[in-house]
Design a protein that fits this description.
Butyryl-CoA Dehydrogenase, subunit A, domain 2; 12 helices; binds flavin-adenine dinucleotide; 8-stranded mixed beta sheet; Butyryl-CoA Dehydrogenase, subunit A, domain 3; Butyryl-Coa Dehydrogenase, subunit A, domain 1
């Protein structure tokens, strides 16, 4: 039964990916957002993957989501990234239990019945990557009259901004009862698209993930009720931290998908390309075969690490006994998968030759999109340091 469901999810991801892949070049050329991908996702039910069955979702395991997202990354990595963030934020909200029951049920109901999308908007111009621990300049000021909050600020890199219904934002919490000199607390709030004062500024003009609509989210005097406050951001126990971090694995999976797509494309290319100096396909040349071997080696290393660490992250005994190791391994997986995918795309382009630079072939998109992995947390330097510290303990 489990194998059957895993295959169903993978098959659906493959169908969606292939359709999205056909549309990606058209949207990139036109500078448009692929809204229809989200309609397909809604209709297919894929957006409820990480919602437990008791709430009307599919209750997919982390391993099933990682496998599905790796396949989806082969089509349109931008769409896959938006979907990953949505699925992972839901997964985290359920796992941590930080949200109120009412808040969680309401969001899950809207995802299940309307295909509402959610993402976390934490990055800001001042903080850079929030994974570094910078305090948000976005503020949430308590209003003693209403018991609610007034929110002001600007978030960058809000992936999926054109189609998100829910924006989970971080803010420095300002409460009148906080004693002077107390360091600001960081809390999270759940905002909805239609709230007055919330708007999207279309700033996303990026080399990579061009179709992700990762625009700025501007918050001007957004008034929210007390229920919008999800609570202070807490690290949690080492086990909770490891589980939360493990929801980064579906992001790594996308970059593996990008590398795999490049390898598939170039294999076909090499079989069909017959220069008249050779009168046989370039796939028969030794230096091309060697490059293809190196490319497969990179992908093998990425794939094995991705699925092995996903397995560890699904093992409750391992989480319980080795949370710090698991957290470091999850970071290392993101590092390895991203960098090996970049290597695989580079090799695919070398096999293809000059045509790899053509805007009419997809290799240039894989090249650009694979780079984006470097900008998703955890950052490479932090990963290596954590791994090194662990090794020396
Ligand atoms: C495609 C894409 C989608 C994204 N989607 C989202 C999203 O949906 N929501 C969201 O909140 N964020 C998102 N992000 C943003 C991401 O999480 C980072 O905030 C963003 O990439 C900026 O990180 P940075 O390291 O370049 O920051 P910067 O602060 O600009 O860093 C500049 C350089 O300095 C280094 N540096 C900065 N601070 C430190 C430090 N304290 N210690 C050591 N080195 C440091 C960095 O490593 C980097 O080399 C997305 C990013 C990308 C690329």
């Amino acid at each position: 039964m489990k194998t059957e469901r895993r295959q169903q999810i993978y098959k659906l991801a493959a169908e969606l990916a292939d359709e999205f892949g056909k549309r990606a070049a058209i949207h990139e050329a036109a500078g448009t957002f692929p809204y229809e991908n989200y309609e397909d996702l809604r209709q297919s039910g894929y957006l409820k993957l990480s919602i437990p069955e008791e709430y009307g979702g599919w209750g997919a395991s982390l391993a099933e989501i990682v496998a599905g997202q790796a396949r989806m990354g082969e089509g349109c990595a931008s769409t896959a990234l938006t979907v990953t963030m949505h699925l992972s934020q839901i997964g985290r909200a359920i796992q941590t239990g930080n949200w109120s029951k009412a808040q969680l049920e309401s969001v899950l109901h809207n995802v299940v019945t309307k295909g509402a999308l959610l993402n976390n908007a934490a990055s800001e111009p001042a903080t850079g990557s929030p994974s570094r621990g910078g305090i948000p300049t976005t503020t949430a000021t308590f209003d003693p009259t209403s018991g609610g909050w007034r929110i002001n600020g600007r978030k960058t890199y809000t992936t999926g901004a054109p189609i998100l219904h829910y924006f989970m934002i971080t803010a420095a919490v300002q409460h009148p009862e906080t004693p002077e000199g107390t360091p600001p607390k960081v809390g999270s709030f759940l905002l909805t698209r239609e709230m007055p004062g919330l708007r999207i500024e279309e700033t996303w003009n990026s080399l990579a993930m061009r179709l992700s609509g990762s625009h700025d989210l501007v918050l001007e005097e957004v008034q929210v009720g007390p229920e919008a406050y999800l609570g202070p951001n807490q690290k949690g126990t080492p086990q909770q931290q490891a589980c939360s971090g493990a929801w980064g694995l579906p992001t790594a999976a996308i970059y593996f998908g990008v590398g795999r797509a490049a390898a598939k494309y170039v294999a076909q290319w090499a079989r069909e390309r017959v220069p008249n100096s050779l009168n046989k396909p370039i796939s028969e040349l030794q230096h091309i075969q060697e490059k293809a071997g190196q490319m497969e080696l990179a992908l093998l290393s990425a794939e094995n690490t991705l699925f092995k660490v996903t397995e560890l992250a699904s093992d409750s005994a391992y989480i319980e006994t080795q949370p710090a190791r698991l957290a470091a391994l999850v970071g290392a997986t993101k590092y390895l998968v991203t960098n090996e995918a970049i290597k695989a795309v580079d090799l695919a382009m070398r096999i293809c030759g000059g045509a790899s630079l053509s805007m009419d072939l997809p290799l240039q998109r894989y090249y650009r999109d694979s780079r984006a992995g470097l900008g998703n947390p955890p950052m490479d330097d932090a990963t290596i340091l954590a791994l090194g510290k662990l090794a020396l303990q």
